[in-house]
């Protein structure tokens, strides 16, 4: 199966991270995007109703995917709560679905640094899950509004090369 599962840390319709995810999926060979519009984690909700249907779907999608791509913006020098909330729910699903799962992370931001601190934080967030997070290259798309053409393609050679290498590593497991 060559379709990776994409998690976008931005819910915004015209998100640059969603564009980045689409580019990554094109280079990987296929992408299905997960829906991260989940309720906020609430232990009382979980105790009363169990896992929300959206969380069960997400856990199943992760378990079935050969690889997971995560693209997330930087909010105040850190990854956004949308992603943390999804990960917290996933940690409550049976089966440790991210354990050993190949994961590639990337970030597109308005700032020049392209979310470097966000990727560092995201690596730490993923430690408890045992995910096989690729160590690099870092895909950091800074000043994102000028980095995609009308067809959603990355215009900067350096970004495109880094993403191409990252996706090759994800596909080959090297
Ligand atoms: C609450 C908030 C905090 C932000 N903090 C940062 C930041 O720390 N660094 C940065 O480069 N951009 C920051 N931005 C700008 C985002 O990088 C920019 O809005 C980006 O386009 C969001 O990603 P998206 O296009 O995928 O939604 C922030 C935006 C918001 C809404």
Which structural class matches the secondary elements? alpha/beta
Shape: globular
Biggest pleated sheet: 6 strands, parallel
> Which CATH class is shown?
Alpha Beta
The tally of strands reads 6
Cα distance spanning the termini: 18 Å
In the predicted model, the low-confidence regions spanning at least 5 consecutive residues are none
Ligand inventory:
flavin mononucleotide
The CATH architecture term is 3-Layer(aba) Sandwich
Radius of gyration, in Å, reads 15 Å
Q: How is this fold's topology laid out?
A:
Elements lengths: L3 E5 L7 H13 L2 E3 L9 H7 L3 H12 L3 E4 L9 H10 L11 E7 L7 H11 L5 E2 L5 E3 L15 H16 L2
Helix pairs in contact: 1-6
The structure holds flavin mononucleotide.
The site of flavin mononucleotide has 15 residues, from helix 1.
What keyword list fits this structure?
single chain, 174 residues, alpha/beta, Rossmann fold, 40% helix, binds flavin mononucleotide
In short:
The protein is built from 6 helices and 6 strands. With 174 residues, the chain is an alpha/beta fold.
